[in-house]
Amino acid sequence: MNELYISYLELYKQSPFFARKKLVEAYLKIRNISEVARIFHTTRKTVRKALQRWEREGEEGLKDRSRRPHNCPRRTPLHIEIIIVSERIKTGYGRDRIARILCEKGLEVKPSTVRYVLRRYKLQGKYKRCKWKKKKRYYDFDSLYPLQHFETDLKEIFDKGTLSEKVIERAKKRNIPPYQWTAIDVKTRMRFLAYSYEKTFINGLIFMIFIIIFLRAMGIRGKITFQTDNGEEFGGKSPSKLDWLNKYIFNPLGAELIHIPKGKKEWNAYVERSHQTDDNEFYIPQLELCESVEEFLWRALRWEFMYNTRRYHSTIRSTPYEKLRKEMVVGKYIAMFPVFILDKISTMYELFFHNPSSKGGEDVLTKDLSNTK
Predict the structure, then answer these.
(1) DSSP output for 36-90
(2) Residue 106 carries which DSSP code?
(3) Which residues, other chains included, contact 92 with Cβ-Cβ below 8 Å and sequence gap of 6+?
């Protein structure tokens, strides 16, 4: 033949269908498989395979086919895949947590298996670029002692973006407190909770003081630091008020109150993230079941104890209490900070923070301290 042929490999890179078609056309002219293979610089097996597919199916047989194997003996059983998919749709959890849940139910599944199943069913989570990624605060965990540094924040329970209006209205009728006060230990992730009907500074102060008293009663003697935002419920933006609080209230108790920089909520990332866990695992499934305030407080205490002693934390690779026990010897009672309503105690705050030397019994917490030297 006088025609010049491009090699089969070069044609295949451009279009596999076109390359096979050229092999068939050349064979119809030459009628010799070996000669066609020599001209296109390929093997006789390749030419023969293209001819067989063309004879059986015509040009449809020259198109690419799936290389998926007919049998997959090591593939995860279908019923396990259904359980993984349903757990992902129901909870939205990641591969590690789903694998942990299934292992607790008696199904030995590896995180890698969960990952492959989620990928196969196109249920992988979308990557979210965090605008605070470069501004994240990092702690020196090697130098931190357990129950030494607490991130503290206030959460509004009745969030319309999380709870339905029906659940919120039902909770309000049963006089459920709308505010949750949270303190989480950075080292061990131990959390302490309290509730209130009002978002006031005195409630926040009572909450932190009771944590100090509770930890001292449990034998914790080190310095305790509370890290909060600049909200009025934690002292506001006044540096003089913050200095006064540390000098006359926190320092005598072996503690300290610090504020994060303005506009940097990511500095309190641990406590902020724990509020999402509260919504997903406590308020959404249990708030509508509460028939009274007493039942709500009992469920909240049970949730606090479960979070501290039984709920696995993927970052520390254990429960908070197990992490604490690795650092010190302490009983499980430390995981049961009494969950109470702060308003019932803060209404008597004059007994604790009354200044007898001031004229007319001036309240040292509510007066303006901006000019205090």
Answers:
(1) HHHHTTS-HHHHHHHHHHHHHHGGGGGS------S--TTSPPHHHHHHHHHHHHH
(2) T
(3) 125
Burial class (CB in 10 A: 0-12, 13-18, 19+), 262: exposed
Give the per-residue pLDDT at 136. Answer: 59
147, 214 Cβ separation under 8 angstroms:
no
Alpha-carbon Rg for the chain in angstroms: 33
Q: 342: which strand partners?
A: none
d(CA 283, CA 183): 18
Strand 149-156 and strand 179-185: the pairing is: antiparallel
Q: At what angle do helices 95-104 and 78-91 cross, to 10 degrees?
A: 120
Tokens 């590896």 correspond to what residue? 110
With left for phi above 0 and alpha for psi between -120 and 50, is residue 236 left, alpha or beta? left
- Phi/psi for 153 (5° steps) reads -155, 170
φ and ψ at residue 191, rounded to 5 degrees: -125, 145
82 phi and psi angles, rounded to 5 deg:
-65, -40
User: pLDDT tens, 263-305?
Assistant: 788 888 899 999 999 999 999 999 999 999 999 999 999 999 9
Question: Which regions of the chain does DSSP assign to beta strands (E)?
Answer: 149-156, 179-185, 191-196, 224-228, 255-259
**Taking Cα atoms as reference points, which of 338, 309, 348 lies closest to residue 217?**
338
Distance CA 298, CA 286 (A): 11
pTM, entire model: 0.72
In this structure, are residues 215 and 224 in contact, taking their beta carbons and an 8 Å threshold?
Answer: yes
The C-alpha atoms of residue 233 and residue 199 are separated, in whole angstroms, by: 6
Q: Write the DSSP symbol of residue 363.
A: B
Residue 179: strand, helix, or coil? strand
